[in-house]
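Sequence only, no structure available. Ideas?
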Amino acid sequence: MQQLDVHTDLTVVGGGLAGVCAAIGAARQGCTVALVQNRPVLGGNSSSEIRVWVCGATAHGVQHFARETGIMGELFVENQYRNPEGNPYYWDLVVLEAVKAEPNIRLFLNTDVRTVAADDGEIRSVTGWQMGSEKEITFHSPAYADCSGDGLIGFLAGAEFMTGREPRSAYGESWAPEVPDGNTLGSTILFYTKDAGEPVRFVPPSFAKDISTTSIPERRIIRTDAYGCAYWWIEWGGELDVVDDNERIRDELQAAVYGIWDHIKNSGRFDADHLTLEWIGAVPGKREYRRFVGDYVLTQHDVLGQTEFDDRVAFGGWSIDLHPPGGMYATERGSKHWHPDGNYHIPLRTLYSRNVRNLWMAGRNISATHVAFGTTRVMATCAVLGEAAGTAAAVALSNGLTPRELTTERFDLVRDALQRADASVLGVVDSDPANLALGASATASSTLHRLAVEVSDGTLPLAADVAMVLPVDPALDGLELLVDSCEATSLTVELHDPLKPQNYLPLARLAGCEVELPAGEKRWVSVPLSWRPDQPGNVLVVLKANPAVSVHTSAAALPGTICFSHREPDPDEQYTEQFRSWKHILPRGGLCYRVVGDTSAYSPSQVIGGYSRPYGGPQLWSSEDLAWDPAPRLELTWSEPVEVAEVVVILDDDVEEDLINLHHHRTPYEVLPTLLRDYRLEGRSPDGEWWHVATVEGNRRRRQVHRLPRPAVLDALRLTVSATNGAPRAHVVSVRAY
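Reply:
I predicted one. Tokens follow.
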């Protein structure tokens, strides 16, 4: 047996997506990092050992323009290219390679941290046992990140924590119980099936559960074409201690899985003769255990009210998603959901311990109530929290600050670091003084200046209300719609304000009018509605139901525009009244329309500073159609020369597209069409000479960093586009120079 000591700037314990992103985030800030994982693979609940979908702020398409950027976004996009079929082993490789690409990370797999040395409110070291190699390894760092899920490190260090359900009186949460208890969300084991091409018997083990004696057949959905996370409801242990009783919970879950499979194969109710089990999990996927107490506790009110924290470092959008303590044996539904009107913010104060000075945390153990945890717990949200915590830890270390000092005295350092990293933060303007591009002006060879989709490829009857989101910059001075009407009638059209820049719902009526329609097909009709907001933002145009009218639709949607239709609300889900009424219906298109006048929503100035994702508008430059401008050019110019060492280009990876690994759904392309495929970057010396900086071909990534061989004095940068990955126009979100 060997005893080893490892010294790094930061030790991250836990190799789920929160830990992976924390380690990568810190490493990219220049920290040396030890990433310690007690399993043979990375990815936690998303790994091939457990196989849970990576869900996040998109909430399966409920929230819009919500997909994560930063490190989690990179993993999504890379997995889309490498693994469109959702192979769980290929996903393992995507995550592993992302870690191995960082030279500042030392990875320790199969290493279970069991002891913590701490005193005077500070962790001194943590020690783990590396199975297989029989090594006892002690990790020494000035800072630690507990991304272990269950929160063992913080617990052993004496960090304050919460478990179970707080009483309603504690935070005034309507979904909290009147009386506190120790109940949590339970654990799950999943299974995969395949068609063997011939009859296959199944002889159940003696310990298989007879599910006919339970409420499962009547209360849960069992189908032969379902596998993996379609059986998320195979959940148990919420009324036990999910750690102390882990072995009992695993045994019960496996007995239930074999009992469900016995029911499918042998009850005679299913056509399953050729089906066989391909895989069953051996490790329970845990949902909830310890939640540490930080300088702020996130609550139900913050999620539903979308509190705009000054120290926001991440966002979520999944519903508050709580499950009955009885899990699969409960007689009520397997989950209940409360959706916010849009994405909500998460503050840095929830990511460090309030009583252990050098402890950061990320994942499902952050400082949140049980109710708020119901949304922050999903893995893509855990991942962006990991990047925020790892980045903040690195910034604090490099500036000699405690987590609390960093947050209260120098939060600007974290804000700028996350902005530079293209992390998942909402509503934060790029004001980084290191970004030389903030002092430049931008021009382009062409700019999309009209909001118009004029070529129809179908019609949609107005059997229900329909709404479309349009960016307004600087004003809406009327629009036209392409409609059919089977008789003379009138169409009611309304304008609505979404109230927050990250919302895409008609939350406040601004104006309305009646448009007289003669009988006829494919007529452009004028809608005399106008709106001039105080600052650029989105507006929702709502067409009220009229069975005599059909609107023309097109698959060619412009950036930042989407279309919804009215829906019947799910009685088991909770929304605001406005949210209950709408759903997304045209994922890749919208209505045919023409907005009166020009728009500045896609101007080249959008690439300088501002927001780096849709927020009250598309927040990007778009060229005119490539057929008209086949080599679009974007140019930044300084009035006085600047010394540039690095240029960062942020491209449009269509964050409206919901990318989920592990079989949830297929997206019809490997590379997002809105990304630039080929482009050339040049710099201009003060003497007027243009010189080559970089040529990119076959790009499939959102963020491209171009480091110059040596700093150069420039008075202009020029980006020339040769090709996109399929989009009809060139899009650029941001150009930065450092």
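The mean pLDDT is 95.
Hope that gets you unstuck.
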